[in-house]
Amino acid sequence: MSGDQLFKNYVSKIFDAWTVARLCREQCPAGRLTDQKLDSLIECMPDIVRRVKDECLLEELIEDYFDDELNTICEDESIQQVAKLLFHGMSLLKANNLTELQRKLESLPTGCDMSKCQQQVVCQASESEEEQSESSYASLEEEDVEME
């Protein structure tokens, strides 16, 4: 397998395992074209990573694409992690260290079956929110309301 094909497989596996990208495919925040837009990004990513000289710029490009094209804002650290993996993989490709790139590819996790994930929603009001709510209710009771 050529180095370029190996890197393409590496990029695909990163995005296939990335929860944010998988949620985009499942939720379709960009409408009917979500899959097409995500596939287009994955296809172009090897060339983008090859041209970008700075990991932070790569983070910004990915973040902007997800925000602008996929209507998705990623609030965790995963964009930085993805950019770091992509940048490191490209450095291995440029150094012609294909054995290490293959090892990295094989060590990447596969995404879990999201249909088997249990939804975990935790709603917990802080004490200050509860106090504010109670004081707002009390002030409503104390106010005189005139109705005409």
Task: Walk me through this protein's architecture.
It is globular and about 40 Å long. It has one domain (3-117). The mean pLDDT is 85. Helix 1 packs antiparallel against helix 5. The protein has seven helices and no strands. By secondary structure, the chain is mainly alpha-helical. InterPro entries: Pre-rRNA_process_TSR2 (IPR019398).
Short description:
The chain has helices at residues 3-17, 19-27, 34-51, 55-68, 78-94, 98-107, 127-142.
Name the descriptors.
globular; 148 residues; single chain; mainly alpha
Low-confidence stretches: none
List the total number of helices. 7
How many beta-strand segments?
A: 0
Measured on Cα atoms, how large is the radius of gyration? 23 Å
Topology order in helix (H) and strand (E) letters:
HHHHHHH
- How would you sum up the global shape? globular
Count of distinct structural domains: 1
Instruction: Look at the helices and sheets and give the structural class.
Output: mainly alpha
Strand content: under 5%
Helix share bin: 55-70%
* Rounded mean pLDDT score: 85
User: What is the end-to-end distance?
Assistant: 83 Å
For the largest beta-sheet, the strand count, sense and barrel status come to: none
Function: May be involved in 20S pre-rRNA processing.
Pfam families: WGG
InterPro entries: Pre-rRNA_process_TSR2 (IPR019398)
Protein name: Pre-rRNA-processing protein TSR2 homolog
